[in-house]
């Protein structure tokens, strides 16, 4: 089964069986294209928190790779990525998972 947002195999997302304990894959994952902690996704998330996109999502800012940080090779007056206004999303608009 693949992620409907980024098209990656589900094994690359979240707390899937076979993920090494304590690894990124056992604690965080792609939830509807949004990269967040699995527990936070299950227990609820805040609408005023900026969550980064899954790096494989087509909505991920290609300039900063979804980090929201200005890359060293890009001229900017701030630490925020000028392409996405520091949110990591391609259009500068934050996204959230559709449901827990």
Short description:
This protein has 100 residues and is largely without helices or strands. It has 2 helices and 2 strands; from the N terminus they run αββα.
Order of helices and strands: HEEH
Radius of gyration: 14 Å
Report the sheet with the most strands, covering strand number, pairing sense and barrel closure: 2 strands, antiparallel
List unreliable stretches of 5+ residues.
Answer: 11-15
* Biggest sheet strand line-up: 1-2
Helical content, roughly? 10-25%
Backbone structural class? little secondary structure
Please count the helical segments: 2
- For the termini, the CA-CA separation is 19 Å
Overall spatial form:
globular
- Strand content of the residues, in percent? 5-15%
Give the overall average pLDDT.
78
Number of strands: 2
Give an account of the 3D structure.
The protein has helices spanning 24-27, 38-43; strands spanning 28-31, 34-37. The protein is low in regular secondary structure and 100 residues long. It has a two-stranded antiparallel sheet with strand order 1-2. Strand 1 and strand 2 form a beta hairpin. The longest helix has 6 residues, at 38-43. The two termini are 19 Å apart.
